[in-house]
Amino acid sequence: MIGPGEVALVVGGSRGIGRATALRLAESGYDIWLTYNSNHAAAGEVRSLIEAKGRACELFSFDVGNYEAVQAALAERVQVTAPYAVVFSAGIARDNLLVWMSREEWETVINTNLNGFYNVVHTVLFSMLSQKRGRIVLISSVSGQTGHAGQVNYSASKAGLIGAAKALAREVGRKNILVNVVSPGVIETEMTEDVPRDKVLPLIPQRRFGAPEEVASVVNFLCTDDPSYIHGQVIGVNGGLAI
Ligand code: NDP
User: Fold this and answer.
1) Is residue 84 annotated as a catalytic residue, yes or no?
2) Closest alpha carbon to 152 in 205, 113, 188
3) Whose CA is nearest to atom 18 of ligand 1?
4) Local structure of 21: helix, strand or coil
5) Ligand 1: does its nearest atom lie under 6 Å from the Cβ of 42?
6) Are 188 and 209 in contact (CB under 8 A)?
7) Residue 150, by phi and psi: left (phi above 0), alpha (psi -120 to 50) or beta?
8) Computed from CA positions of residues 136, 62, 15, 32, in that sequence, does the dihedral angle turn out positive or negative?
9) How many CB atoms lie within 10 A of CB 120?
10) Could you tell which of 35, 70, 89 is best to mutate to test the pocket of ligand 1, judged by most ligand atoms within 8 Å of the CB?
11) Would you say the CB of residue 89 lies under 6 angstroms from ligand 1?
12) Among 3.30.565.10, 3.30.450.40, 3.30.1140.32, 3.40.50.720, what is the CATH number of 7-237?
C-alpha cells in the first residue's frame, strides 16, 4: 500500500513517458514531485491533472545535466521529505552517424541522459537510504541494449544507465531500496514524431508503436509493494522489437 503523503519524484515528467508515469503514480496514491527542463505549460497541465486526481504535485524546473541546478532544486527539499520512489525519465536524442557526430551532440546526450542520472540520484539517495526503503526506476531504451546505427551517443548513455542501475542495485539492496530499469522500444511521444513508420513497423512483431501509458504501467508496478523480489533487472516494453 502506498501510504498518504508518500512522494514519487518523476524526473522528466512534463511530457511523454514521464508525464504518463506521473499520472499513473498519482492514481496509485503517490504525491508527485515533477521535474522538467523548460516546458512550463506542459508541466503545469500535468500538475492540474494530478491535483484533479486528489494528489499533491510540486513542480521543479532545472536542467538535469547541471549538477548545481539539481542541488539547488532538491538538496534542501529531500532533507524535509525523502521521496519513496524516483523515476528517471528525462532524456534526449541527437542522432547522427559517429563519423559526423560533433562533440556537442555527444556531450549533450551523455550529459543529459547519463550525468543527469548521477546528478539527481546522488542528490536524493542519502535521504532514501536513511528511510531504508524505496524504489528507483531508470528509463533506458532498447537502443542501449542492442545498439542503433546513428545513435552511438544515445545508445552509450542508455547502456550506461543499465550498468549504473545494476551496480547501484548491488549497493542498496540490503537497504530495502529496489533498483530496476524499464527499457522501452518505440513509444508514441514527441521524441519519435519523425521516426519513419514504413521502415520501423516491420521490425516490431506487434506491428505498432507503444503508448506512453504502456510504459507507465510497468514503472508503476515497480513502484508498488508487488515487485518485492525484482531487483537489478531490465524490463523491456517494446512490442517484441528486442527479444
Ligand atoms: P519527451 O521528449 O516526450 O519528454 C522528455 C522529458 O524529459 C520532458 O519532460 C523534458 O522536459 C525532460 N527533459 C529533457 N531534457 C531535459 C533536461 N536537460 N533537463 C531536465 N529535463 C529534461 O521524451 P519521451 O517521453 O519520449 O522519453 C522519455 C524517456 O524515455 C527518455 O529518457 C527517452 O530516452 C526514453 N525512451 C523513449 C522512447 C520513445 O520511443 N519515446 C524509447 C526508449 C526510451 P521539458 O518538457 O521541459 O522539455
Assistant:
1) no
2) 113
3) 63
4) helix
5) yes
6) yes
7) left
8) positive
9) 25
10) 89
11) yes
12) 3.40.50.720
Tell me the one-letter amino acid at 174.
R
Helices (H) and strands (E) counted in the chain, each on its own, are 10, 7
**Letter string b/e over residues 55-64, b meaning 16 or more CB atoms within 10 A of that residue's CB:** bebebbebbb
242 Cβ below 6 A of ligand 1: no
* Cell numbers describing residue 231: 531487483
On average, the pLDDT of the chain sits at 97
Q: Which of 91, 174, 92, 177 lies closest to 128 in space, CA to CA?
A: 177
Cell (9 digits) for 17: 513517458
Domain ranges of the chain: 7-237
| Distance (Å) from CA 99 to ligand 1 centroid | 25
- In this prediction, residue 208 carries a pLDDT of 98
SS3 228: coil
Helix (H, G, I), strand (E, B) or coil at 120: helix
* Residue 139: all three cell numbers together: 528509463
* CB 70 within 8 Å of CB 120: yes
Q: What length does the chain have?
A: 243
Is any atom of ligand 1 closer than 6 Å to the C-beta of 39? yes
pLDDT given at position 32: 98
Give per-residue pLDDT as tens, 53-107: 999 999 999 999 999 999 999 999 999 999 999 999 999 999 999 999 999 999 9
The cell for 72 is 539547488
